[in-house]
Write a structure and sequence with these properties.
- The chain has 86 residues and is of the alpha+beta class.
- Helix content is 20%, strand content 44%.
- It has two helices and three strands, in the order βαββα.
- It has a three-stranded antiparallel beta sheet, covered by helices on one side.
- The longest helix has 12 residues.
- It is elongated, with a radius of gyration of 15 Å.
Length: 86
């Protein structure tokens, strides 16, 4: 049986919502293995001087949990370890 866990993250980019999503997945993949999908929950844009300057997303990343002997030897990953996306 496979079990998938989801964590909620926030990311931003000066270029696009798609770029903010890519950056979140790339950053999360440094500490999370087996990422299977991403679901963007919310979109937001920062406006300064009548111009959009930042695109922000709140998203959920789904990843499959390890099973078997590898799971027992793997350190547990808390959500605090993947916060602070740049």
């Amino acid at each position: 049986m496979s079990i998938v866990k989801m964590v909620e993250l926030s990311s931003q980019s000066p270029d696009s919502w798609e770029d903010a999503t890519r950056q979140a997945v790339e950053r999360a993949s440094r500490t999370v293995r087996n990422i299977r999908s991403v679901w963007v929950k919310e979109f937001e844009a920062v406006v300064e001087n009548d111009q959009v300057t930042q695109f922000r997303v709140i998203l959920k990343i789904a990843f499959q949990l390890d099973e078997g002997a590898n799971a027992r030897s793997t350190r547990s990953m808390g959500s605090d370890e993947i916060l602070g996306l740049e």
